Amino acid sequence: xxxxKHYGTACVLYKKNIDIxxxxxxxxxxxxxxxxxxxxxxxxxxESNEEPCDIKLGKISMVFQEDRLxxxxxxxxxxxxxxxxxxxxxxxxxxxxxxxNQRVREFSGGMKRRVAILRALLYEHDTLLMDEPFTGLDxxxxxxxxxxxxxREKGKTIIIVSHEERVNKDLLIDEVVEx
Length: 179
Prior knowledge:
Keywords: ATP-binding, Nucleotide-binding. This is ATP-binding cassette domain-containing protein. Pfam families: ABC_tran. The protein is an alpha/beta fold. The chain has helices at about 35-45, 75-80, 85-95, 110-120, 140-150, 165-170, and strands at about 1-5, 10-15, 25-30, 60-65, 125-130, 155-160, 175-179. The longest helix is centred in the middle third of the chain and has 14 residues, at about 110-120. The protein is globular and about 45 Å long.
């Protein structure tokens, strides 16, 4: 897939070649402002690509840089919006140590982040896109989230934007795409 993107006269990406294969894990790596998030948004079809593009990734789920939660809902209600199985939802919340019936607006930043990640993981998908997903997580929580992703996402395509060096090793990345 070739990506080109301009915003007005500013060129963010020019003929960036990204070869995404089904079932592989990719880390988009590079300095801030170089186009990693834009590339991810183009892959998610949230922004247009100026190049002809015929990438097929199936059903996509995404963790955005912002949590984008339903603040007046409980964590459980946020997850039930994408997954009907209450047992799976409750088990996931328990694994991430998130109160089931507390309103999300009362959560800390790290707790909101965990709910946002869980929501993306519990949505039925073929491809998982994650944009700086581990911001605000302490080391212990980071490790449990990584373990959950590695176990749950076997065989699925993952594309992650992160500035954290440990993500490459911890998420078993197949290819680092430098920007």
